[in-house]
Write a structure and sequence with these properties.
337 residues; single chain; alpha/beta; 2 domains
Length: 337
Amino acid sequence: MTLDDWLARLASAASDRVTLDTALAAELAAALGVAEAELLVTLQDSLDFHAGSAAAHEIRSGTGKVDRAAVFGAITATVLRHLGAGVLPAGVASRLFSLERAEVTATGLVLHGTVPPGPDPAAPAEVAARLAQAAHGGEIVLRPDGGPREIRVVCRAPVSGPKVFISYSHDDDGHKEAVRTLAELLVRNGIDVDLDQWTGAGRQDWQAWATSLISGAAFVLIIASPAYRRVGDGLVKTNENRGTQAESATLRDLLHRDRHAWTAKLLPVVLPGRSVDDIPLFLQPYCADHYHLTELSDAGAEDLLRTLTGQPRYVRPALGAVPHLPPRSLPRPPGRP
């Protein structure tokens, strides 16, 4: 299972924050092949770097909140120590290896991440060189203290993800939070997302903002919901859902102008708890693809992630040679020459 799923089972709060209890610390320490006290020190260092809001006694007692970045930072710093990097600050460790996904297996951990290009002056040269070499399609296998558990570090060079705009209606606060959770999930997976909730303070011309970003996006995600369906199908009054009306009108116009190009760029997304019936009819909910997320996790969004990053689930094999199949002769009847 992925570390995200593992942490989610122990979560006591929403989004990326989990309660770090002693059981989680013990399991992490065992998987990493280090003493639990050592891991707690590293976690505290990561917390100081990322948030600085939890005290050491809160970590030990299991009452402190630890964000995902802090846990990943602790794992990265610990693994780099196994590589011979010594004790590195969390910020330096994260610059050396950006951990994206961790799988907990029966034999240890499998860590997937990227190695940024260029040397880091604060990083040990030998460790940086080893990571850079592995980034060209390789991995590093570690066995802490020669024990039975192994840590596999799967490296790759960073890839710039596609530009994505999210179009959705503000049905209610729960729907807005679910859309933001999806956007955060995509960003963690290298997708460059534009979302209205992240525009910050200040007056905004929302129509100009949306039109500009839609025009420059590689994909536009249309989040299905009852309100968006009504707007997209033209079933609301002109003074209702004005922002969604403007966006959906722009999308309909772009689709009508170049149906081939924009059919591939407009991706209807059905969040958990929603239905394909919430997709507007102009997006062809029943005869074109849509993306139904089973849950707001990497696994639940796999089909969407594959489409956004151009990584199909199955690849057609290479064309083989045509076999030689000579004709078969029928057996002759008895007594005939």
